[in-house]
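Notes, p. 3: input format for complexes.
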Amino acid sequence: MDEANPASAYGETWYAATMVDAPLRPPLGAEVDAEVCVIGGGLAGLTVARELALGGWSVVLLEAGRIAARASGRSAGFVLPGFAASPDSIIARVGFDRAKDLWTLAQSGLDYVRNIVRQEKMPGVDPQDGWLYVSKTDNGDEFTRLAALVGEFGGEIEGWPTDRVRAVLRSERYFHAIHYPRAISIHPLNYALGLAAAAERVGVRIYENTPALSMDPAGVRKRIVTPHGRLRANFIVLCGNLQIAGLMPQIAETLIPITTYVITTAKLGSGLGEAVGYQGAISDSDLADSHYRIVDGDRLMWSGRATTWPGNPGRYAGALAADIGKTYPQLGKIAVEYAWSGTLGNPLHRMPQIGELIPGVWLASGFGGHGLNTTAMAGNLIARGIADDDPSWKLFSPFELVWAGGKYGRALAQVYYWTRRLGDALAERRARIGEFSLGRSARYSNGGDAADHAVDAAAPPETAFDAMAPIAEGDLPGTDTAPPSVQIETGAMELRAPAAEAEITPGDETPPPMILVANRHDEEEKSGDADV
Ligand SMILES: Cc1cc2nc3c(=O)[nH]c(=O)nc-3n(C[C@H](O)[C@H](O)[C@H](O)COP(=O)(O)OP(=O)(O)OC[C@H]3O[C@@H](n4cnc5c(N)ncnc54)[C@H](O)[C@@H]3O)c2cc1C
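Output follows (532 residues plus flavin-adenine dinucleotide):
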């Protein structure tokens, strides 16, 4: 970190350029006692810390770097209902009634974010209403079925026909959409910093640049060692996401690291509002691709192009700008002012890992690309579990800690992304050719000569492989960063048995079957030659 500029820890992001004041908290430099030690200062850790302190508990939060400098301060900022896992896959695992209860909890996480931003009058968070989930194919039946299912879960949604979608999003790539009016989008870094300030106001002691190096979780008073200080606490809450690898590699190994790339354009003027006439969040894929929104009045923030290795964001900026150009050619050449990446941790089942691992040691992890509502939900569930013995967190028990397959798992997940992108591109191409044969596309053309746009619409994408991210030299899998070489005292915590439910239901969005990989891991363990 640049000492003269503490904000440099937040990277070259549009969020860092527009962040509110973030006072640098000193590292822990003494022996400290608390009732609860929260490890990790992302959204999960900040929420659980604040909620417990609100109830009168003495809470210390340790953050290895700066507050929310990892995934939480780099996200696209969509606060959505539901989970990363599809409703169908949740029902397949736990049945309809329990899936509905889970959905209600996820909705409570979304409501929590919306309410706390207002109650705490958080500056610079700028919530915008609504999420439009748009189809690039004419698959009305599938969308209607999804909308009905979410409706049965109690979700508030509207189906938008193609005419209505194209009246606000002037793109011939788009067909119908599901509109979620209660979703919001926010400045996630300012939200996390607002949450940290709110936590401190109710008594949470936050130490930055303080990695928890080892812990002894045995007994009532648990011990945590940091570089310059020690802590004793009755409860430990692990909220370290992928970076927990330095302390608890077993937890990190249940997550597939997915790096996603985000750009923010230069100011585009009034033409942006004419092309994108919707102020909320927009997604046109259920992969980590093409999620975008207008920020700062007339800039476009666009994210996507996920990889299972940490690539250089500069190399993906062009591909993301090309995605914008393909969707909104009327915007012309796009100048990109900010490009960054962030890495999220995806469990195989794509559901959060929430629960008490051993008495007094809790875990909040695995929020994947759907963490803004689910970290809020998890923070509240764990706080209630600790303070009131509330068993609601047990609804997540079916979603256990399953080894994610190490480098094999990452490779399979990447192949899955490529295959899905290819499938999506082919489906989109079929839809557009079908539409052109019906002579419909010219009707929706906007600006310039309608006939020209009709011709554009008919032209299939150059090749279906356009949908894939270019793999830049040096960005290949295998350039993985090694976990920090700190002393590890893992104590009594163990990975739970690989879950039998790692099997995949047909049509599930989960990455390819990992049960084989899990078995392989068992064999490797037996031979004492475990990978990773
Ligand atoms: C590019 C990108 C876009 C995304 N977009 C969205 C979106 O639009 N909507 C959405 O819902 N979700 C989105 N997500 C996902 C969401 O950001 C994450 O799921 C969520 O922020 C995870 O929060 P967390 O607190 O679990 O982890 P993190 O934010 O990663 O925080 C964990 C913290 O723990 C600290 N830590 C780890 N180990 C230790 C230790 N031993 N000692 C002390 N500290 C430690 C780390 O330094 C880190 O700061 C996105 C993610 C990325 C990367």
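The chain is about 35% helix and 20% strand.
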